[in-house]
Amino acid sequence: MSFTPRNTLPIVISGGGIGGLACAVALAQRNFYVVVCETAPQFGQVGAGLQVAPNALSVLDALGVGDQVKQQALLIERMLMKDGLSGEEIGDIPCGEDFIRKFGNPYAVAHRADVHGALLEACRASAPYVELRTNSRVTGYTLLDKGVSITLANGESFPAAALIGADGIRSCIREQMVHDGEPKPVGAVIYRTLVPAEKMPKALQKPFPTLWAGPGAHLIYYPVRDWTEFNVGITVVKSVEGVTEGGATLDEAIEAFAGWTDIPLSVIKLSSHYQRYVIRHRDPIENWSDGLVTLLGDSAHPMVQYIAQGAAMALEDAICLADRLDANDGNYAKAFQEYQKIRIVRTARVQISSLMLDRIYHAKGVERLVRNAMLQERSVEEYYDRLAWVFAAPSYVANWKTSVPA
Ligand SMILES: Cc1cc2nc3c(=O)[nH]c(=O)nc-3n(C[C@H](O)[C@H](O)[C@H](O)COP(=O)(O)OP(=O)(O)OC[C@H]3O[C@@H](n4cnc5c(N)ncnc54)[C@H](O)[C@@H]3O)c2cc1C
Q: How many other β-carbons are positioned within 10 Å of the β-carbon of residue 33?
């Protein structure tokens, strides 16, 4: 591949998660030279399942990796929600042909590493437009007359054309720009595990996620990795004072489920060991750019995971940002302003909607009965209409043309 980039100094992306890598691929497709600085010794994603909504698949399609992700993922038949106390079905959204026609893509569940891996491969295929650096923790930036100086934890500093902070919920670029400290705990914990498929009762091995909602807790499980494992996530509303992240026992994970019906309890008992995470978020902000520096993904708009859209929003950011940089060739600060103007309302709406699902999923008493009645009487068309604002690809994604660097 010849190397004739539009920029002499690189655009630096701090953080090689799903958002950072997607942005690198998109920028390379518009002939920008990008350096991704990742703090970890290697690129990769720990964790388990990832729900990949149609709007996220539309971004992956646009970047040319959609087919690879879809081949490794499970394209689900439906989304099912049940009441954890009564066992009754309260919501059923079919994800077949009508769904695909409406949103342009199916809904998938995948292993997080498969989505990240597809983007990493695309970055490697985009060399020398994309340069990947590991063991490179970015600690801050200094705005220069022309460009921005990037500082790494090893003391190295180097000039860049612009900086994109894609360094996650505890972003140090955001801290320098916004000064809003640690992300706030929302008062809930998630326990996660992967269960080998042979342990999951045959009757529960369904080609879709099942979500059990109950007072103060919810449980979701679905198959990943070609049905060899089931991703199990248990969210519990509780005080998180003094709670740390790390290993947790079954006794702790199951504590909040007294009085629940048998099936969710039997799924929780399939594993004796869970990983505990404190659920955090930040309130939406009106500005996430500082001249030649901007934020992307969780560093810009971290959200609780109830709506399963955090990675999807990071992916959409990536295309929108590359599209604006392409349109404003060389004027990075203007491009960043246009990008955040387009993205802030959409991502803030997802942040806020996500928090609101806490009340739906974890309702108790009469609120729970109201929730059940409300969702049970909703038609499939009504569900689709209510989901359209988030699941349909925004114009900058739908109009993006995949290309290889020239
Ligand atoms: C329990 C849970 C379940 C979720 N489920 C879903 C789901 O089903 N669907 C969905 O769409 N979203 C989901 N999300 C949200 C999703 O995981 C995140 O929104 C998404 O990973 C954000 O991607 P990112 O690239 O912005 O940040 P991250 O994935 O956090 O990546 C940041 C990267 O930056 C690196 N880094 C950090 N600091 C520095 C530094 N100073 N210098 C250099 N590198 C640095 C990190 O090592 C990391 O590689 C879930 C989140 C949680 C917590």
A: 21
